[in-house]
Amino acid sequence: MAADAPHPAFEGYATEAVPQAAVGSPGKDGVLELTFERTADGTALVHDYATVPFHISGTLAHDPHPSADTVFIQSPTGGIAQGDRHDVSIAVGDEAIAHVSTQSSTKVQTMTCNYAAADTTLSVGAGGHLEYVPEPTILHADSRYFQELTVDLAPGATAVVSDVVVPGRLARGERFEFERYISRVRGTGPDGLLFEDATHLTPADSDPTAPGVLGEFTVYGTTFVLAPDRDETELSDALHAVVTDGEARAGATALPNGAGVAVRALGDRAETVQATLHGAWDHARQELLDVPAPSGRKY
Amino acid sequence: MSDTATLESFRLADSFLPVGTYTVSYGLEQFIQDDRVEDAADLEALLVTYLRHQVGPAELVALRAAHAAATEGDLDAICEADRRLSAVTLAAEFRESAQRSGDRLLSLQTDLRDEPVLDRYAERVAADGSPGNYAVVLGVATGLADVDVRDACLLCCHGFVTGLLGAAQRLLSLGHTDAQRILDDLRSVMAEAVDDSEDRTIDQMTPFAPLVDVVAAEHERAERRLFAS
Hints:
The structure holds two protein chains of two kinds.
Chain A: H1 11-14, E1 31-39, E2 42-50, E3 68-73, E4 85-92, E5 97-102, E6 106-108, E7 116-124, E8 129-132, E9 137-139, E10 144-153, E11 158-166, E12 180-189, E13 192-201, E14 219-226, H2 232-243, E15 249-254, E16 260-267, H3 270-289
Parallel strand pairs in A: 1-4, 3-5, 4-7, 5-8, 6-9, 7-10, 8-11, 9-11, 10-12
Antiparallel strand pairs in A: 1-2, 11-14, 12-13, 14-16, 15-16
Chain B: H1 3-13, H2 28-33, H3 40-72, H4 75-88, H5 92-112, H6 116-126, H7 134-144, H8 149-171, H9 176-185, H10 187-198, H11 210-220
């Protein structure tokens, strides 16, 4: 007898497998589009379109900057499943200031077939500023995840883009049990490619804890402070001084082609890496917008 | 390979080549300062990481592209590989080192050889139209000298490792025999790094060594240091 049959007449039904929704079917190919424009009253979200698993409940106005707008991307699902393909496009118009984050960590679930992928395209207009600082990505055992993020900057545009990856549900002792993780972050400007950062981890083939790779650390994050019109050496030194005080092992370096600064942080817990990177974000915000970063509290 | 090509590869692989590799440690100095590298075994493990995660998936990919482009006289393709390598090298100190030694090798080669591609590439670099990374200059030099591309890749690995072993001898109490033993032990890792680079296009350069980046960032600001990187 099938264990979950509510009545003997339903036993036959209960033995039948439910095929998983196919790649591309509703709920599997989430699309999110956000467009911010500068208006007389500051920044406004002028276009938003979200399909499951993305959900938007309007904007928040808690930013310390008077003309900035904030969106927290919500998800009604338990995370990213095999076969999911997500497509996120965020455009910030000239002189607009937007901060986009997620409400909680993105959990990439265990997989037995196929893979999950997310493609994120960010663009910032002249004199605009975008902060894309999502909560960490947690890679569950046997997951396969491919994410690609491109940020395009118009002249005078600036951005802060952050990415933190947690290699398993650490509290239950799961670490580096995922199958494959590829993440590419690419920055472009009016003259083309500024920089590209790729993470490719396949723990079964290549030890992520090798010296110089992650070493004794587990959680890894990078914050890109993109400000092509700024003196990147000065900003790099200032951000380095800020992050070396933190609990995580971190450092800042000037990006190629004068794109800005990359701050890398390694730690044992997501919280310490996030706290260190938040310090860098806060400092960058004081430099670029003259206001501190929002606290990061989501509840 | 012809005798001329073989001799050219020996010359380019020799630590006698005046390109300033004795001034770079690619963060090794800071790894030692940080007590992360204390003996020959630690050093060898770190060199494995460099070969697998930096040289193989980035430098060698650029070298191959430059080698092929030089053979075909395609200056734009050389510069594209060059710019791409800089764009994926996030540690500022490593870009500076690669450009400094690249610049020296390029000026040396243009003095020695009469090759229009080399001259045009040197002009492009001088006009800031291309960064002039060492791996790319080496790719151009070996391509023009008819050094087989696999040999050129191995030569690059050998040069990288001997350069760092030289730095290690000055930073650690590492004996000559230990240095030779490490070089010998790393032969298979060098061959693997060359294999890894083989099927990659220049869009597939994926160096990944975050802790090296963090340590290099600390080295950039170190008050007392012997090496430029």
